[in-house]
Automatic annotation (TrEMBL):
Family: Belongs to the methylenetetrahydrofolate reductase family.
InterPro entries: FAD-linked_oxidoreductase-like, Mehydrof_redctse-like, MTHF_reductase_bac
Name listed for the protein in its UniProt record: Methylenetetrahydrofolate reductase
GO MF: FAD binding; methylenetetrahydrofolate reductase (NADH) activity
One Pfam short name: MTHFR
GO cellular component assignments: cytosol
Gene that encodes the chain: metF
Species whose genome carries this gene: Thalassotalea litorea
Keywords: Amino-acid biosynthesis, FAD, Flavoprotein, Methionine biosynthesis, NAD, Oxidoreductase
Reactions mediated catalytically: (6S)-5-methyl-5,6,7,8-tetrahydrofolate + NAD(+) = (6R)-5,10-methylene-5,6,7,8-tetrahydrofolate + NADH + H(+)
Length: 294
């Protein structure tokens, strides 16, 4: 590192450390499908719970069986940890009456936060009967849930263009969404430009950056290909030759994510949503650098 780069890094770290205001984090998990994965999940939740996240979200795929597993995890989080738990809910595999009943059941169970998504289509040629904005409206009609929705700084893969995608987010906000959480990204400028564009069209909720600490680069490339996320060339160089070196991959992933959150923090971001992949180590380390500690 040359002298100029060192001074720039020192200036960034000083800027972050001097920022005032409450810093918030939230974490995403997925329901386990094996005893080993269940142990990993609950160890991770136990490790991250002392950081007092705003909420923790739990994903699910299509099908009522997966939804039941999500609900089980949600109920245990609420019962055993006291954390605010937010189940993901999609509208592609349930009709309106079923969704209303699911929402009522969640509310009666003490769930007040939901991540409302359209969900992945099992048949991409079939037009969905409901969209995320419709689901947000339905949930708000049932009870006054705190609702998070998805946002796409690099445009949703199915959107015909970026403006169409942006206006779709606006519809979700106008339907009652309380915040938007972005797809993971690595191009910080794309997030900052997206945040500005949201303001320009009247979107007045916070746009929470989704942070994915990368421990497996091959898995990332597969995810990115499905989600229209740009993986910069410099990341290929940083992970080159580390296919059989998970310890170094973790260090690289933590370093990249730490740099991202420091820069975003210096740009005024005060809430980060971490895609933990049910593992706590990298997320915990990154939160520590932000000053979020038990």
């Amino acid at each position: 590192m040359n002298y100029r780069s060192a001074r720039q890094l020192d200036s960034l770290n000083r800027t972050v450390s001097e920022l005032t205001g409450e810093l918030q984090v939230s974490f995403e998990f997925f329901p386990p499908n094996s005893p080993e994965m269940e142990t990993t999940l609950w160890n991770s939740i136990e490790r991250l719970a002392p950081l007092k996240p705003n909420f923790v979200s739990v994903t699910y795929g299509a099908g009522s069986g997966t939804r039941d597993r999500t609900h089980d995890v949600i109920k245990r989080i609420q019962k055993d940890t006291g954390l605010i738990a937010a189940p993901h809910l999609t509208c592609i595999d349930a009709n309106r009456e079923e969704l209303v009943q699911i929402a009522k059941d969640y509310w009666q169970s003490g769930v007040r936060n939901i991540v409302a998504l359209r969900g992945d289509l099992p048949d991409s040629d079939k037009k969905p009967e409901m969209y995320a904005s419709d689901l947000v409206s339905l949930l708000k009609d049932v009870e006054d849930f705190d609702i998070s929705v998805a946002a796409y700084p690099e445009t949703h893969p199915e959107a015909p263009n970026a403006q169409f995608d942006l206006l779709n987010l606006k519809r979700k906000v106008e339907a009652g969404a309380n915040r938007a959480i972005t797809q993971f990204f690595f191009d910080i400028d794309s997030y900052l430009r997206y945040r500005d564009r949201c303001v320009s069209v009247g979107i007045d909720v916070e746009i929470v950056p989704g942070i994915l600490p990368v421990s497996n680069f091959n898995t990332l490339k597969r995810f990115a290909g499905l989600t229209n996320v740009n993986v910069p060339n410099w990341m290929y160089s940083m992970y080159e030759g580390l296919e059989d070196d998970p310890a170094t991959r973790n260090l690289v992933g933590a370093s990249i994510a730490m740099d991202m959150v420091k820069i975003l923090r210096s740009e005024g971001v005060d809430h980060f949503h971490f895609y933990t992949l049910n593992r706590s180590e990298l997320t915990y380390a990154i939160c520590h650098t932000l000053g979020i500690r038990p």
